[in-house]
Amino acid sequence: MLIITIKQGKEKSLLAGDPWIYASAVERVEGRPQEKNKPGATATVQTSSRQFIGRAAYNAKSQICARIWTYKEDEPVDHALIKRRVKAAIAKRAAAVRAAGPNDLVPVVRGDEDGLSGLLVDSWGGVQGYLICQFQSAGVDAWKVPIVQALLAETGCPNVYERCDDLVRKGEGLPIFYRALAGEEPPDHVLVTEGKQRYSMDLRTGFKYPKVRS
Description:
Blueprint: E1 2-6, H1 12-15, E2 20-22, E3 26-30, H2 33-36, E4 41-46, E5 52-58, E6 64-70, H3 79-92, H4 94-99, E7 105-110, E8 119-124, E9 130-135, H5 138-142, H6 144-155, E10 160-162, H7 166-171, E11 179-182, E12 190-194, E13 197-202, E14 207-212
Parallel strand pairs: 1-4, 9-10
Antiparallel strand pairs: 1-3, 2-6, 4-5, 5-6, 7-8, 8-9, 10-11, 12-13, 13-14
Helix pairs in contact: 3-6
InterPro entries: PUA, PUA-like_sf, PUA_sf, RlmI-like_PUA
Domain PUA: 2-91
GO molecular function, one term: RNA binding
C-alpha cells in the first residue's frame, strides 16, 4: 500500500475533518511505481512524525492528490465499506425520494457529505426511472462496480447512467464517458421539475432546454 506523508503543519485541516489533500501539502509518497500511477489507489496517510491520519484514494494526476476514505485505523477500504456508504446515503434521503413527484430530480448521493468524495447521484422518475451518476474523482471511479451494485440493490432502480463534467474528469486524468452502466439509457428529453419551474432536460448530459411555462 502507498504511504503519503504530510508536511509538518499541513495535517491540521485533515485532523479537523477536511477530506481533501492537495499536492502542496504532501512531503513524499512511498510505494511501488505501478501503485503510484494507478488512479484511485488506496494509500495510508501519516503525519511527518509517522502518526496515522487515515486512508485515502491517491491520484498523482490531480491537484487534489488524495481524498480521505476513513480516519479509522481498523477500517479497511474494501467493497464492504463502499457498499455501506452507498446504502447509508440512500437511506438518508429515502423519504425525499419517496415523496418526489414523477418528474422531480432528487439527490441520492452527495460526495463528501456521504463519505464518497467525488460521487454525485440523482434520481429521476422514481423506482422505474433513472439514476444519473457522476464519478468526479479517481477514488470513486476505481470503485465503480461495487457502487453500481449497491445502487441497484438498495434502490431497486434498474437503470444507472454515467454522465460527466468533462473539465472535472480531465482534471483528474480520467477518461470521458457518457454511457449506461446498467439497464437502459434515458430518453433525449424528459420533463424535470425544480420547485415551481419546469425544464426539458437531457439527463445524459445535464443540458437544460428552454423553460416550459407552468
